[in-house]
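Our preliminary data section would be incomplete without showing what the modeling component actually yields. Below, a chain of 237 amino acids is followed by its predicted structure, encoded as tokens that our downstream tools consume directly.
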Amino acid sequence: MKLHRRRVLHLIAIAAASPAMPRIARAQAYPARPIRLVIPFPPGGAFDTVGRPLADKMKLLLGTVVVENIGGGGSSIGAAAVARALPDGYTILLGGTQTHVNETLLKSRPLYDPIKDLDPVAGVAANVLCMRVLAVTSPTRLSAAPELPTAAELGFPGMTVRGSIGLLAPARTPGAVIEQIAQATRKAIAEPVFQQMLSDAGIEATLDSNPEKFRQSLAADVALWAPVVKALGLKID
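Predicted structure:
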């Protein structure tokens, strides 16, 4: 029985393509290589306290996560490096309130636009206690230090300020990749051991965060500080 020439060519093409298809699928799977987590401050400090243990936890969920400290410029240099990276999920930033407020409000010559150039992934932590304090400026008492009253409880109801630390990716990173990193982040933060480690360091974990929640939190932080910076004429460059 003879096969039509076109049919034969079609069968040959299918046979040739079939072995390659699994390889293509594997090449497109995320993550296929180590992920770079940039901390935009020198080693030590709150960002390292959060970022390095988080990277260790996420290795179990995403594979190798390499931490790289890129300090300088009040977080500008490291954050700008992430903003300019390929939006493929292999370079992410541990940023938050400080990086957004610094670049949006306090720089005369910003190196990047944190709103346009970075996509929020998930919040990780908030209030940080690093010294002897009389009160906290969060809306409620911290689980890490429940004995400390809030500023509102001491008679300063308008003194409510929260800061956040979380993960951000270069703008235009695929939504599926961002959600995969966000899910891994939530799983890592959900571990009681991880939460306790942060609490022991005076840091409160952010639970059940997602890209939109983190985006709204950062926008609220910038809106909170904008009139203060304008009124005082503050600039750090």
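The domain at 31-124+163-232 is CATH 3.40.190.150 (D-Maltodextrin-Binding Protein; domain 2). The two ends are 82 Å apart (CA to CA). Preliminary results of this kind motivate Aim 1 of the renewal.
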